[in-house]
Amino acid sequence: MSFFAIDQATARLNRSELAVPGSQPSMFEKAAQSDVDVIFLDLEDAVAPDEKEQARKNIIRALNDIDWGSKTMSVRINGLDTHYMYRDVVDVVEQAGERLDLIMIPKVGTAADVYAVDMMVTQIEDAMGYKNRIGFEHIIETALGMQNVSEIAAASKRNESLHFGVADYAASTRARTTIIGGVNPDYSVLTDPDHGANRATHWGDMWHYALARMVVAARANGLRPIDGPFGDFQDPEGYKAAAKRAAVLGCEGKWAIHPSQIALANEVMSPSEAEVTKAQRILVAMSEAETAGKGAVSLDGRLIDYASIRQAEVMVEKARQIAAA
Ligand code: GLV
Ligand code: MG
Question: Is 229 in the pocket of ligand 1 (CB under 6 A)?
Answer without folding.
Answer: yes
